[in-house]
Design a protein that fits this description.
The complex is a heterodimer of chains A (88) and B (255).
Chain A (H helix, E strand, L loop, with lengths): L1 H13 L1 H38 L4 H29 L2
Helix pairs in contact in A: 1-2, 2-3
Chain B lengths: L12 H4 L15 H22 L8 H20 L8 H16 L15 H22 L1 H9 L9 H44 L5 H41 L4
The chains are: A mainly alpha (88), B mainly alpha (255).
């Protein structure tokens, strides 16, 4: 464990800028994925509830669910774009 | 020294930038991405040409695929979002769906293995086409001022909120809609391609390292390949349905 940490530190001090921006990119994408993850969960969960309650309107619910996923997912994808831009 | 941070992993551009191999140093130079797009275009055109050549009452071959696709776009996309008067956009939406699907699916086809939409150019161009179409439809059906008034000042909002809502809606219809369309398609394909490449490299590197370390990434690779096939179709579907939603919003203003 200590050896691992010291290796990480050695690589950080060797090429500090690149290492820090790689860590920042990883953290940034991770943080950007939290909100959309929760949001997509809410969207899909409620769509499933709607489909279970009214199976005859499953088509509309599914279409609207995909729309909601698409809008929510856009935030995570912007985080992904930032991740790629930050990569050294 | 052990490479813990994987800083020596090749830059992402190595996976997405291809050298020109045909008509080099001319404006029509062709690289892998362009060749895949030409192929996808020929596939889309060829599918509908083959389907319409001999119209059998009982469809076989290409006609089955084309008829299923058209019916899917009509009942699942147009009817759900625009309504019966959206049928005139059926050719546009069907072509769009099949073109995006074909250029995505090359990401999992052996020996090609590059989703052409992981380069930004064509997704952005498609999004600009959509942008022009929904503005044109809106201005033609509601008039210039009617269209912008209907979009910027949605009814049912208390009037002080319009100070906040109108700029956001303006930004939305002018900038956010086309950009999010293009970025959604592009980023999904980039992410899928990176995932496939990472797991392929991982399973190649661990191939001789015993059963469990070699089998796990390979099994994951198979699952991800299946998932990518699903994502290719899903992204084509989402791009098409969002186009239909935007056209529908321009065609039927909110009351």
């Amino acid at each position: 464990m200590l050896a691992l940490i010291s290796t990480i530190l050695a690589q950080l001090t060797g090429d500090g800028e690149a290492g820090l921006s790689a860590i920042g990119a990883g953290l940034g994408y991770g943080l950007a994925a939290i909100g959309p993850g929760i949001g997509i969960g809410i969207v899909v969960g409620n769509a499933i509830t709607a489909m279970a309650r009214q199976p005859e309107s499953a088509g509309v619910a599914r279409t609207t669910m995909f729309l909601g996923i698409a809008f929510t997912e856009a935030l995570a994808l912007i985080g992904f774009v930032v991740f790629i831009l930050l990569l050294p | 020294m052990m490479n813990v941070l994987a800083l020596e992993f090749p830059p992402v551009t190595h996976l997405f930038e291809w050298p020109d191999f045909l008509f080099t140093d001319t404006p029509v130079a062709l690289n892998k991405t362009g060749a895949i797009y030409v192929l996808a275009l020929l596939l889309t055109a060829g599918l509908f040409w083959a389907a319409g050549r001999r119209r059998a009452l009982v469809p076989v071959g290409a006609q089955t695929v084309a008829e299923t696709g058209i019916e899917f776009v009509e009942s699942n996309i147009i009817m759900q979002t625009i309504g019966p008067d959206g049928r005139r956009y059926l050719p546009l939406l069907t072509t769009m769906f099949f073109f995006i699907f074909f250029s995505n699916i090359f990401g999992v086809i052996p020996l090609v293995q590059f989703p052409a939409n992981s380069r930004m150019a064509i997704p952005l161009a498609l999004a600009l086409v959509v942008w022009v179409i929904y503005h044109y439809v809106g201005i033609r059906t509601q008039g210039f001022f009617g269209y912008f008034k209907g979009s910027l000042f949605p009814p049912g909002v208390p009037w002080p909120l319009y100070i906040l809502v109108a700029p956001i809606e303006l930004l939305q219809i002018l900038l956010i809609r086309p950009l999010s369309l293009a970025i959604r398609l592009w980023a999904n394909m980039v992410a899928g391609h990176l995932l496939l490449v990472s797991f392929a490299v991982l399973s190649a590197a661990l191939w001789g390292a015993g059963f469990i370390p070699a089998a796990l990434p390979f099994f994951a690779l198979i699952l991800i390949t299946a998932f990518e096939i699903f994502v290719s179709a899903l992204q084509a579907f989402i791009f098409t349905i969002l186009t239909a939603v935007y056209i529908g919003g321009s065609l039927h203003p909110q009351h």
